Amino acid sequence: MTPSPGTGRFNYLGPSAEPSLYRNGKVLTRRDRDGSDDHWVGVDLEEYRMPVCDARQLDAAQRPTLTRNGFCMARNPLAHPDFDFLSHDEVVRRYYPECADIVREASGASFAAAFDHNVRSAGGKSSRSRIRGG
Known about the structure:
The chain is of the alpha+beta class and 134 residues long. The chain is 22% helix and 19% strand. A two-stranded antiparallel sheet has the order 1-4. The mean pLDDT is 85.
């Protein structure tokens, strides 16, 4: 089954931005004291409209694979769904190992490690909650 696509709007760097694989100090995001994006430097975004569909509805042969697409989809319910994602220690100690296990299993790698997460919480932002221990 091929789902009918909708249209999504995506922002990509425009031609005036100076991208680099290495830090060049010319394209960056500054963060505020709460860790949220505050402003960008050297970023010239251009909007592109592209077709988007629900990949969960694709036939098995059409689904993205690591080999063909560099990513895949997997259903992996949390072993411990009671995670407190606003607790830095709990995320690192309990959630990171689950993420590494999922990647190791999907890729066949002998070793995988999770690191450097961002917490996005509309409720936490509106209540000005801080990440404990982070």
